């Protein structure tokens, strides 16, 4: 069983991340009817909070905040397999708590069933690509510029919001949490399976690729 402080860091970090995603989505939707402007208002806070969270909590738990990242590190032998399920549970619980907190701050029903349809091959491919890119950024960043990893991840997610058709969830815990929000950031619960499978596939592919790509001569 991992140190409770690590699990707390993973739960807290994922909660703040999801609260930022959902809260900024609600705020953006409230302030403008322009979908592009609303997406920008959702994107910038998400990238910014990732920089903050990874910088602050990385030394404590590794700042995964993402079951796909935890799985990738376990495949590489950089994370104990016995700690995978506790980490994932903390991330999912924290993510749902973040959704509830965002709803509470905007005086909305605390738990909602999202009606936002996100499905189809293009969406699944987007999630696979988004998660591959995220894992690639983390693994190569740790080798090339470890001191800049928080900025690299924050900037990657900011960019991936705009070059993927799915707006780059790239995180099963975040996807699950967003299924409880029938707002700008939501995803229909029925569509979760396709997203999660694509995310896990993208993370594993990136991990295996980087295992070869980063092998020292």
Describe the structure.
- The protein is mainly α.
- The chain has a single domain (4-213), classed as Glycerol uptake facilitator protein.
- It is built from eight helices and no strands.
- The chain has helices spanning 4-31, 35-61, 67-75, 84-105, 121-144, 149-163, 172-178, 192-213.
- Helix 1 packs parallel to helix 4 (84-105), helix 4 (84-105) runs parallel beside helix 7 (172-178) and helix 5 packs parallel to helix 8 (192-213).
- The model has no long low-confidence stretch (mean pLDDT 97).
- It is a multi-pass membrane protein.
- Its main location: membrane.
- This is Aquaporin Z.
- GO terms for molecular function: channel activity.
- InterPro entries: Aquaporin-like, Aquaporin_transptr, MIP, MIP_CS.
In terms of topology, how is this protein built?
Elements: H1 4-31, H2 35-61, H3 67-75, H4 84-105, H5 121-144, H6 149-163, H7 172-178, H8 192-213
Helix pairs in contact: 1-2, 1-4, 1-7, 2-6, 3-4, 3-8, 4-7, 5-6, 5-8
Protein name: Aquaporin Z
GO molecular function, one term: channel activity
Subcellular location: Membrane
């Amino acid at each position: 069983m991992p140190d409770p402080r690590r699990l707390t860091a993973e739960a807290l970090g994922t909660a703040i991340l999801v609260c930022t995603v959902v809260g900024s989505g609600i705020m953006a939707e409230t302030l403008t009817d322009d979908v592009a402007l609303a997406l920008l208002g959702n994107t910038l806070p998400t990238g910014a909070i990732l920089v903050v969270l990874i910088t602050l909590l990385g030394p404590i738990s590794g700042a995964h905040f993402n079951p796909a990242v935890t799985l990738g590190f376990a495949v590489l032998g950089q994370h104990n397999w016995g700690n995978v399920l506790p980490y994932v549970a903390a991330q999912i619980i924290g993510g749902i708590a973040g959704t509830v907190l965002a709803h509470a701050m905007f005086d909305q029903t605390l738990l909602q069933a999202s009606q936002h349809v996100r499905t189809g091959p293009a969406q699944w491919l987007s999630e696979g690509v988004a998660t591959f890119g995220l894992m690639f950024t983390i693994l190569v960043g740790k080798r090339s510029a470890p001191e800049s990893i928080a900025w690299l991840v924050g900037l990657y997610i900011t960019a991936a919001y705009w070059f993927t058709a799915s707006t780059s969830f790239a995180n099963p815990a975040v996807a699950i949490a967003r299924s409880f929000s029938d707002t700008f950031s939501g995803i229909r619960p029925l569509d979760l399976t396709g997203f999660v499978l694509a995310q896990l596939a993208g993370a594993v592919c990136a991990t295996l690729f980087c295992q070869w790509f980063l092998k020292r001569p």
